[in-house]
Every structure is written in structure tokens, then in C-alpha cells.
Amino acid sequence: MRILALDTSTEACSVALSVDGRICDRFELGLQHSSRILAMIDEVLAEAALALAGLDVLAFGRGPGSFTGLRIGAGVAQGLAFGAGLPVVPVSSLAAMAQGQRQTRVLAAFDARMSQVYWGAYRRGPDGIMTLMGGERVVVPAEVPVPETGDWFGVGSGWDQYAEELKTHLGDRVKDWSQGGHPHARDVARLGESGFNNDEAVSAEHALPVYLRDNVVVKQSP
Length: 222
Fold this sequence. Notes:
This protein is α/β, with parallel strands linked by helices and 222 residues long. It contains five helices and ten strands, in the order βββαβαβαββββαβα.
């Protein structure tokens, strides 16, 4: 499968092209998403000697995250998909960040400002894909849902900002957490391929961002 993935949901901007499992990618920190994203896409396509028309599907980090960043990512994904006639798989940016951790259970959190976090609990399945446990939410740290018993690992800017509050609230369920975590397009590609194989692709006009502030619970696990 040939899948182009991007994520602009945080201060990180990343692009990845997966061709039958071989990855070409770019990752940059900073707030230059609008000026850099198309150039980064051109770079990975050139590295693989592919054109957009030669792809099977696009995937993008649909949020939650920065409002501006999500609009950029969704807009680019829509524009490319319309132009090349490609399906699109929207991928949770929290799930992508969790997917990139070498852990079985991950509590992913972005700083949502307003003393809140975007929050999701993920567990890795036998296929290596992270599955959402419950729902993604935007809540104050002291009210995040307490996960099932187990050794959980925290990651994301929400932990950078509110680690003490989160550890106090969650207690011994959290074994550790890491600083400076961001979603990466290579993990969006992995989740996008899984989503495509599970019939989760949409047409370009339905490739929309998810902000969470207007929709607190976005998905329930089976």
C-alpha cells in the first residue's frame, strides 16, 4: 500500500510516505506549518519517486489539538484528495501519539489551554495497533477518567503541563511518563493503513477536523 500521511495538530509538523511498509518522513518543530507542509510533502514524494496520482490513500491527524493546526491539516488533506481523487482516513492525533510509544497502555494528553487537557486512554492490541478505551475527552486534569487497573504510561504536552495533578488523581495506575511527546505522521500512516483496511476511509469533503470542545466524547470502544 502507498499512503501519504500528515499531522499538524500540535507545534510539531510531520509528513510520512509509506510504500509497502518503507517509510520516508519529515518532522519539524515550530509554528511554520502553513509555509512548510506542502514543501515537506513534495520532499517525501520526490524521495520515493512518486506522484500523488500514484498513491492509494491519504491519512491526516484530525485532532484534537491546535485549532489553527487542525484547519491547516484538514485543508491540505482535502485539497490533495480532491485533486488526485484519493480517499482519506482521518486519524486521531492522540491515538497517533500513543501509537508511537513503545508501551502497551498509554494515557495520551495534549494541553488544551483553559486549564484542561485533551485526553485518551489507549491499549495496544495483538496486531500492534492502539485501540481507544472509552472516549476522547477535554477535561480538567483532576477529572480525567480513571483507567482500568494496570501499568499505564503518560505522554504529551498535557503531562508536561499537569503531571503532578494527573499523577495525584490517577495514583499507582501510572508507572511513568515522558516529556516532549508529539504525534508523528509515520504513526498516522500506520493507523491510516489499518483504518483503510477496516473501511474507515471517507471522501475528501468528509475529511474534517475534530476539535472535541464541541463534542466531548467522540468514540466509544466496542
